[in-house]
Amino acid sequence: MPSSIYDFKARTITGEEVSLDQYKNKVLLIVNTASECGYTPQYAGLEALYKKYRDRGFAVLGFPCNQFGQQEPGTEVQIQAFCQKNYGVTFPMFAKVDVNGDRAHPLFDYLKKSLPGILGTEPIKWNFTKFIVDRNGKPIERFAPATKPESIEKEVEKLL
Fold it and tell me: Which end of the chain is less enclosed by CB atoms within 10 A, N or C?
């Protein structure tokens, strides 16, 4: 069993394989995203949170996912262009992943096991499920898709 998120690697949206240990000593908000979802406007709130706190050691990590209603059908190039054009996203984005099932990215398996959802169920229910991770790489809290990024600000500040 991994001891923190730093034990994982992920492919960036531009195709580079990176170790998540590059985010050591940062507070992270890890989110499964989608471009054609009712929650897609949350990109603006995620970006605002990132800009406000990045200089204090905070980052948002976006992981596009097409498992919920096929709401992320595009390629990584299309996703990146959409996010930049429509929401000015500058926070780190990663390649499209599965978050549930046999092909789920190991990071999301770890996050789900560390922080089960409502009634102890592990699967992610929809796009824009959020996991806040402390400076030691430990998942601290899981937030539902409907939870707006701005309402998480107090938790971010506490961990910074």
Answer: N
